[in-house]
Design goal:
20 strands; Aldehyde_DH_dom; binds adenosine-5'-diphosphate; alpha/beta; globular; potassium; single chain; EC 1.2.1.79; six-stranded mixed sheet
Length: 487
């Protein structure tokens, strides 16, 4: 651990396998975690392989049997303690998160509380895993439906929300009575490990949660796919890797929860409150330096307000403070790695070569390293890469449109269907457009849509399943129909 992290109580540079903290693993290998703001190595972790994943799965399989037998309330008590510990330790968790991922400290703290809210929510829902009584189809029959936990869950999470993406999976899994073996992104394993530490302190029985730190994600994915004790794979990440996991899981008809890529449209109609739309765009586009799967990727602005919106947005974006997430007042941290900067540069170069203009930013920030200038592009058209692919960076490309039908068609012209946003003050249009957008999530007159009380998830190639809300437990339970005869 680096000196700074040594001061963070919850920074733990060991893997957590089957209820034990490990600094040595079978491969004998380690890997480094790097602070993207400075390039410094902040921790060195054991590089787990097949052996450790199998060990974690075996322990999860055993531990789950007793966990499933507990009452919802008994599971809720532990989840509530974990929630309290996360809130009490939010500052510490935020420092660890910013150190490994780069986002501004205030955003990191927000993420920790957002993740904690899922733990709280699903702890409460654990008590409400209701079944059903169905009127029998014959006079001597009675029909009952009960909910039972799916079993062992394999979870693979990304680097952009290292705390909340795991919280969103472990909360419903543990609440439902499942156990979970998690594999955090290799760039950001410390946040997951700190949550395991708190779960242990909260009294979670050993083996129910493992955190396998590994650079060999495909090995972990294969064990999850091929070990029939793992009943479900839950994954947040790219559509490309989602496809691999789904293919691999096909042999065992593995249950899949997939939160994949997005290509979110953000539509500003002529009748919108432009100031609100600008604020919505800042929240949706520039949060986490544009590195979220619900970030606005394509901003469609109606012709009548195009120039005014471009002007207002650029003024606001020009004021965003870029820097290390640990510095006061910073709103845009570094990109996660060089490849992310390359993709942003490639999208800007492609757009400008095809006729777009850089209204603001457009290049690496003067701080160097992985810092990039928040950027606004105008004159963007559907033939450009940024129209089809997720840029995943602080770039706002502005497309001009004339009418509602055209913009809905353009917005839906993508294989993705996660989040979408639009701004309008016309009630009829609000219903029409919200219903016409082929997305799992629609934000109307807001750029912020994530909350534990609502179902988060995508349609089309953005995924399967929903996280959060009263529906979220469904993904971690099976329905069992019991038919009582001879009554
Ligand atoms: P991104 O890095 O763009 O968020 P990825 O889909 O590459 O998206 O990564 C998300 C998670 O999936 C990470 O934990 C990564 O290590 C893991 N991962 C990458 N490739 C595979 C694979 N073939 N099998 C299983 N997990 C994978």
């Amino acid at each position: 651990l680096s000196d700074k992290l040594k001061k963070a109580d919850l920074a733990e540079p060991r893997a957590y396998i089957a209820g034990e903290w490990r600094d040595k693993v079978a491969s004998g290998k380690t890997f480094d975690v790097v602070n993207p703001a400075t390039g410094d190595v902040i921790a060195t972790l054991p590089d787990c392989g097949k052996e450790e994943v199998e060990e974690a799965v075996a322990a999860a399989y055993e531990a789950q049997k007793a966990w499933a037998k507990k009452t919802g309330k008994e599971r809720a008590v532990i989840l509530r303690k974990l929630y309290d510990l996360m809130v009490e330790n939010a500052d510490d968790l935020a420092v660890i998160l910013t150190a490994e991922m780069g986002k501004p400290l205030a955003e990191a703290r927000g993420e920790v509380l957002y993740g904690a809210a899922y733990i709280e929510w699903f702890g409460e829902e654990a008590k409400r895993a209701y079944g059903d009584i169905i009127p029998g189809h014959q006079a001597d029959k009675r029909i009952m439906v009960i909910r039972q936990p799916v079993g062992v869950v394999g979870a693979i999470t990304p680097w952009n929300f290292p705390n909340a993406m795991l919280a969103r999976k472990m909360a419903p899994a543990l609440a439902a009575g499942c156990s979970i073996v998690s594999k955090p992104a290799q760039q950001t394993p410390l946040s997951a490990l700190s949550m395991a530490l708190l779960a242990e302190r909260a009294g979670l029985p050993k083996g129910l949660l493992s955190v396998v730190t590994s650079t060999s994600s495909s090995t972990v994915g294969k064990v999850f796919s091929e070990d029939d004790r793992v009943r479900k794979i839950t994954f947040t990440g790219s559509t490309e890797v989602g496809r691999i996991l789904m293919r691999q899981g096909a042999d065992q008809i593995k249950k899949m929860g997939l939160e994949l890529g997005g290509n979110a449209p953000f539509i500003v109609f002529d009748d919108a409150d432009l100031d609100a739309a600008v604020e919505g765009a800042i929240a949706s586009k520039f949060r986490n330096a544009g590195q979220t799967c619900v970030c606005a990727n394509r901003l469609y602005v109606q012709a009548g307000v195009y120039d005014a919106f471009a002007e207002k947005l650029s003024k606001r974006v020009a004021g965003l403070k870029v820097g290390s997430g640990m510095e006061d007042g910073v709103e845009i941290g570094p990109m996660i790695e060089k490849a992310a900067v390359d993709k942003v540069e490639d999208h800007i170069a492609d757009a400008t070569a095809k006729g777009a203009s850089v209204k603001l930013g457009g290049k690496s920030h003067e701080r160097g390293g992985l810092f990039f200038e928040p950027t606004v592009l105008t004159g963007v058209t559907p033939d450009m890469k940024c129209a089809r692919e997720e840029t995943f960076g602080p770039v706002a490309p502005l497309f001009k449109f004339e009418n509602e039908d055209d913009v809905v068609a353009m917005a839906n012209d993508t294989e993705f269907g996660l989040a979408s946003y639009f701004f309008s003050r016309d009630a009829a249009k609000i219903f029409r457009v919200a219903e016409a957008l082929e997305y799992g999530i629609v934000g109307v007159n807001t750029g912020l849509i994530s909350t534990e009380v609502a179902p988060f998830g995508g349609v089309k190639q953005s995924g399967l399943g929903r996280e959060g809300s009263k529906y979220g437990l469904d993904d971690y339970t099976e329905l069992k129909y019991i038919c009582l005869g001879g009554i």
